[in-house]
Specification:
Order of helices and strands: HHHHHHEEHHHHHHHHEE
Helix content: 55-70%
Number of helices: 14
Shape: globular
Largest sheet: 2 strands, antiparallel
Strand order of the largest sheet: 1-2
Number of strands: 4
Distance between the termini: 59 Å
Radius of gyration: 23 Å
Oligomer: single chain
Strand content: under 5%
Length: 331
């Protein structure tokens, strides 16, 4: 009998990085198609430039530093898609390329590549663009058929922040995505369907999205309005279906590398994201807070994991030793 000695793991699930990334891309496609449908060819150009720049930057970095070329794992494509989905369709393409290069090189490859980055690269790229080109990053156009006759407008969250409830779109428009905003965050129902697909495929777990969305729902219901039950429910609905809540909760807050691996840590991570998002939306000067909340909790993820790690079976903490003081033993 011939045997072979190998290192662990000895049991394999059959999953691969490429397979997981392909599932994420498939789940993201409906929202992207909706964005192109409502914002036109300009939105498609932003998506293509973002994805192409991410793939090219990853390949060039690995070639320059003589590392294995890993663009086949499709992780750079996912980063490009997520970054594009978080951008307005009117953003100049050269700015899109700069943001994509920052996401891949600074937020990912500098720290060692896939599995070593401490924050979500797409959100890091978006935060950089918002700091560097605030005017362009906060210019929005209304959604229309293939982007025809689109006009500059305010996003639903900006209207809500200003208290212009009479100008808010119908809730069904928010669900379908017929509103101004970033390319991939407008259609809540398609993002929800994509998230459910990832849950069904067991690519992600429900803990973080449920805790994230549930926290925003509870806090905006309690603190989002001083009116009665009907108005509170309406305001809560606007907060749930506006902005990038579903995009962030299902596709970015669930990133394996930048979130805790423990069940309790994941719950606390999602609650923290929801809390920070709500505070920024209701109290801060910026109408949206999903991106910054995830980035902040990315930094806190190692601490959450450390303090929620279950105790190893059979392990017991050492009791403090008895110390002699003045010739007598004291406990």
């Amino acid at each position: 009998m011939n045997g072979q000695v190998t290192s662990s793991p000895h049991l394999h699930s059959g999953e691969s990085v490429r397979g997981i990334m392909l599932d994420v891309i498939f789940a993201l496609l409906p929202a992207g198609v909706c964005g192109v449908f409502f914002f036109g060819i300009r939105a498609l150009m932003v998506i293509l430039v973002s994805v192409a720049t991410c793939v090219l930057c990853e390949m060039l970095w690995q070639w320059l530093f003589k590392k294995p070329i890993s663009i086949g794992d499709m992780s750079a494509v996912v980063t490009g898609l997520l970054l594009a989905y978080n951008l307005p369709p009117t953003l100049p393409l050269w700015m899109v390329a700069i943001g994509a290069a920052f996401a891949i090189i600074i937020a990912k490859q500098v720290f060692g590549g896939l599995g070593h980055n401490f924050m979500n690269p797409a959100l890091a790229g978006r935060a950089f663009l918002l700091a560097a080109f605030a005017g362009n990053m906060t210019t929005w156009v209304s959604a229309s058929l293939f982007g025809m006759d689109a006009q500059t407008t305010a996003t639903p969250l900006a209207l809500l922040k200003a208290g212009n409830l009479e100008e808010m779109p119908e809730l069904m428009q928010l669900v379908l995505g017929h509103v101004g905003g970033c390319i991939g965050e407008t259609s809540a129902v398609l993002l929800l369907l994509g998230g459910l697909y990832l849950l069904a495929r067991r690519v992600i777990k429900i803990r973080i999205p449920a805790a994230f969305i549930g926290t925003v729902a509870v806090l905006t219901f309690i603190f989002g309005s001083d009116g009665g039950f009907g108005e509170r429910m309406q305001i809560m609905g606007y907060h749930l279906f506006s902005g990038g809540l579903f995009l962030g909760a299902f596709f970015m807050a669930t990133d394996y590398t930048t979130t805790p691996s423990t069940p309790l840590g994941q719950l606390l991570f999602g609650i923290g994201c929801g809390l920070i998002t709500t505070v920024i939306r209701l109290i801060g000067g910026y109408p949206e807070g999903v991106s910054y909340s995830i980035l902040m909790m990315n930094v806190a993820a190692p601490l959450l994991e450390r303090h929620t790690m279950p105790r190893v079976y059979g392990y017991a903490r050492k009791k403090p030793s008895l110390r002699k003081k003045g010739g007598a033993e004291t406990a």
